[in-house]
Structure formats: C-alpha cells, structure tokens
Design goal:
Blueprint lengths: L8 E11 L12 E12 L15 H8 L7 E6 L2 E2 L5 H8 L9 H4 L9
Antiparallel strand pairs: 1-2, 1-3, 3-4
Amino acid sequence: MKKEHESMIEVDELKKYYPAKKSNPVDGKKSFLKAVDGVSFSIEPGEVFGLVGESGCGKSTLGRCVLQLAKPSHGKVNFMGEDITRASGRRLVKLRRDMQIILQNPYSSMNPRLKIVT
C-alpha cells in the first residue's frame, strides 16, 4: 500500500565510485574516483528540481545513477515508492518512460543580462 503523501523520487546516500587506473602509492590499495559521494534528496510531485555545480562535479553522473543508466556503487533510489536500484531489463525500460533528465548548456539557457543573485 502506498503512502498518501509520497515523494515522486527519493535518493538516499547515493554513491558512484570508479576504480582508478593506479593503486595508492603509499599502501598499494586500490584507489577510487568518487564521482558522487553520499547524495540525498527528494522531489515532491509538481515540484521543480534543479541541480547546479561546476564542471566535473558529478551532476551528469548523479542523473545517470538516478535513471539507472549507471549503476550506483551504494545507496537507494525510490521512484513513486518503488526501489529502482534493484530493477533491471524490461522494468527499467518502462520506468524510464516516466523519468527524464534535461542537460543544459548554461551559456544558452541563461540570459547574461540578468543577475542570478542580487
């Protein structure tokens, strides 16, 4: 049974680590690039959510992990009450019909004549 007031999407402690090509020179252990490290948020129905940050900070990787285009290293994504981090195949294809990220170029999406902060 679904809750009466349910978030459209809930992201809990999402992490995406990529193995580094070289191990740690000090202890010889395998190193990882932390592209996304412990991100949590929720989006309510009808709410607009924007994610901003500098180039290379993990925005696109986070979007790919939420859509399960890249499998997260850790964490959970609930979409309409369903844990989609365990979904695969046909189920993901159906879910992605209702999910979308919009990647934008800030130079074409923002008016340079307007101030962002006053």
